[in-house]
Write a structure and sequence with these properties.
The chain has 14 helices and two strands, in the order ααββαααααααααααα. By secondary structure, it is mainly α. The chain is globular, with a radius of gyration of 28 Å. The N and C termini lie far apart (about 60 Å). About 25% of the residues are buried. The mean pLDDT is about 85.
């Protein structure tokens, strides 16, 4: 009398049991729904909904007093900003200056610090902590700290120059000819520490055999870095470029603490707040400025990332 094979039956039974064990329970589904739903809902309410609302309001004329006063304005807000709004083009020039300064000074400074601290240096952990401290501070707090540094009569810098309390003392944040550069130095203080940490992590992850192979081929330290190490940190370089662009475009906190983005410190982000908050608010103009800043922020970053990752693939 023939008997059914036992092993295949046991295997089938184990597979069915495994499938039953892999099924999500109601509690698991509820947990996943909460973990995915709350961040998604927060993102929609605090980011996407205001963004869509700003785009819609940029085509309206509204005094923010009553919804009944909202009137369609077409492209007039954008035309006004581009042609008849005096602070706009100086703000654009300042944002471009901010980007160039961070790209040419702040980012290379962070890279240089990372290279120095990547070497076997006594107390390197302490130096890393010292340079990273500004990154942990908020930009408004950094603005307040540098206000104390730049104060005309009691500031550290004017005291160091020996001009504090004299007519020759420089009003670093009050003089429109120098306050932008003073604010850029304050922003670079934080930016360089952030870039240093990122590049230091990239340098620690480089395979030592790459440096050894370059040394065998007769490359010196400079050639090894620029021809071997730096290209090997391509993912870090991409992130650094994106961060630098974003930092320059969203610059706002420091200048708003200094003088609310006026008197030589006009930035697009500050103009947005000036038109959306406080007295004399013009919601349509502020929304148009916000949409323009959004487009300027997204387009170059998206193109750069698409090209870079496309070449990598």
């Amino acid at each position: 009398m023939a008997t059914a094979p036992v092993e295949p039956a046991r295997a089938t039974s184990r597979a069915r049991a495994s499938r039953r064990n892999n099924k999500l329970t109601r509690g698991d589904k509820a947990t996943l729904a909460v973990m995915a739903g709350i961040p998604t809902l927060t993102q929609v309410l605090l980011v996407w909904f205001p963004m869509v609302l700003s785009i819609g309001l940029s085509f309206t004329s509204w005094n923010a007093l009553s919804l009944a006063t909202i009137k369609p304005a077409g492209w007039s807000n954008y035309q006004f900003v581009l042609n008849d709004y005096p602070p706009f083009w100086p703000a654009v020039a300042h944002n471009i200056t901010w980007l160039l300064f961070l790209a040419c000074v702040g980012t290379p400074l962070g890279l240089m610090l990372a290279i120095l601290l990547d070497r076997p240096l006594r107390g390197s952990r302490i130096y890393q902590s010292v340079f990273f401290v500004p990154v942990m501070l908020s930009l408004p707090l950094i603005g307040i700290i540098w206000q104390l540094m730049y104060a005309r009569n009691e500031g550290l810098i004017n005291n160091f120059l020996g001009t504090a309390g004299t007519p020759n003392a420089v009003d670093w944040f009050g003089d429109s000819s120098v306050n932008l550069w003073a604010a850029l130095i304050a922003a670079t203080w934080r930016h360089a520490g952030y870039i240093m940490v990122m590049y230091l992590a990239g340098l620690k992850g480089i395979d030592p055999s790459l440096r050894e192979a370059a040394a065998v081929d007769g490359a010196n330290a400079t050639q090894t870095f620029f021809r071997v190490v730096f290209p090997a940190m391509k993912p870090i370089n991409i992130i650094v470029v994106v961060i630098t662009v974003i930092e320059a475009l969203r610059a706002f906190d420091i200048v708003y603490v200094i003088n609310r983005g006026t008197n030589g410190l006009e930035l697009i982000g500050a103009l947005v707040v000036q038109n959306l908050v406080g007295e004399g608010q013009v919601i349509g103009i502020g929304s148009a400025l916000a949409v323009m800043l959004l487009i300027v922020s997204l387009v170059p970053i998206t193109i750069y990332l698409a090209r870079t990752f496309g070449k990598g693939d």
